[in-house]
Amino acid sequence: MSRHQLGIDYAKQKDHEDVLSSYRNQFHIPKGKNGNELIYFCGNSLGLQPKSTKSYINQELTDWANLGVEGHTDAKNPWLPYHEFLTEATAKLVGAKPIEVVTMNSLTANLHFMMASFYRPTKERYKIVIESDAFPSDKYAMESQLRHHGFNDTEGLILWKPRDGEDLLRYEDLETILELQGNEIALVMIGGVNYYTGQFFNLKLISELGHKFGCMVGFDCAHGAGNVNLDLHDSGADFAVWCTYKYLNAGPGSLSGCFVHERHAYNKSLNRFTGWWSHNKDTRFNMRHEFDCIPGAEGWQLSNPPILSMAAIKASLDIFNSVGLNVLIDKSKALTGYLEFLLKQLGEHTIKIITPEDPDSRGCQLSIQVLNANKTLHDKLTKVGVVTDWREPDVIRCAPVPLYNSFTDVYWMVKKMKAILNE
Ligand SMILES: *Cc1c(COP(=O)(O)O)cnc(C)c1O
Question: Which homologous superfamily does the CATH classification assign to the domain defined by 8-44+325-421?
Fold first, then answer.
């Protein structure tokens, strides 16, 4: 798709035509030591701060100062039902029904809580399939679950690997794994968008494959939420988790989102770990009641949540809601396509893009493999004000985020990279 052109004039023209260009002003863009704005391509790791976040948090600080405990019911945004204010926008963002989503805990914690319900191994069927280059936290979580249930974590973990000489995963190979060992596999747990390669998987296809062989299917969508169209409900997945500090711009360590498919919403016999926040809201404060689980994803909550963090999520979701995911994805495809076009002009002698070329099989991130694993390219980019991240062994992850990055950002990033490569 080389509809793009070289030269700064083209980049400026594209920014001029960009219907989302004004959104950049709604974010704090970090500056370098020289006072110039950095070219920030690290929204896949930590999204930038919306300028509105402070006032959303201040509202809760003010209500806490003025109302104390009464804020639970009398705050402008009462704290008792505060998580409900996030439900509709979250559901829209991940393509779910409101009953299927909740914001709670942190990401890896949610992975474990979901596995308490959806990883119920037996002696015959206990194995877990993950991608071979899954995010380390996910791999550690899976291994510890296997050990927790008394299984060997090497034998129990099946890796879905790229073929020799390839970087991306093929669905045929997952199918082969399932055909050979399907009756021993309890759970298929895949990163919806792989953090390393940027490959966006067909969640529906994977769910159907897993279910065909009698497995539960879950996704870690940390790199998907706010980046791609996840369509979680239609995917048929049993559960999904994600964080809100990457593409969702809710601040370092902010809370996690969680999806439980509607088909499990009223199944009160499903094993789970519970707390008072999973209990029926009408009788929660009677304190002595027998446990009565809330239907849907809310029934997996444990604790009353941190409102200050939720306020930051609300600030961000209000922005996403005003833009609409489809508009965002249109720009994302154009922006990332432009980055790809310019990078390809640099030739393949020193760098190679390993992210899928198909715009529907990726989000905004391009993973640039550096030949000979030469990290100095990344370090030099940092020195000239381009923020990307280096992932061992040999990849620079580069994510132009459609909400706040521009075509001129992309132009200057590649121009600087070219200068470094020509040194
Ligand atoms: C970012 C990320 C995490 C981080 O987990 P936390 O529990 O939020 O620290 C885990 N898994 C994946 C796939 C990620 O991308």
Answer: Aspartate Aminotransferase, domain 1 (3.90.1150.10)
